[in-house]
Each structure stands twice: as C-alpha cells, then as structure tokens.
Amino acid sequence: MIHKITYIPVLFAIYWHFNLTDVIFATNTDFNVLEFKAVSGLLRFALVLFCMQ
C-alpha cells in the first residue's frame, strides 16, 4: 500500500511537466483552467492507482 502512494507525486510531476508544456504553447489560456487540468489529472492518476491495487 505504501509503495503505491509513492508513485502519486511522480505521476503528478510527469503530468505537470506536460501541463507546463501546454502553458508554453498556449498563449491565451486562463491559469484557472490549467490549475483545474492539473487537479483533475492528479485525481485521474489517483483513481487509476486505486483501481490497480
């Protein structure tokens, strides 16, 4: 159970890396939308990890 939790920050960092790439290429993007994308991505990763255990 513990080793599953340690994957969450790693996956979130990977997702945030791609999210920052979206920030670089998107000039007219609201940061609230980007923050929502990051949170929803983290929730999706957590859901996947929860289903895999």
UniProtKB/TrEMBL annotation:
<keyword id="KW-0812">Transmembrane</keyword>
<feature type="transmembrane region" description="Helical">
    <location>
        <begin position="7"/>
        <end position="27"/>
    </location>
</feature>
<keyword id="KW-1133">Transmembrane helix</keyword>
<keyword id="KW-0472">Membrane</keyword>
<protein>
    <submittedName>
        <fullName>Uncharacterized protein</fullName>
    </submittedName>
</protein>
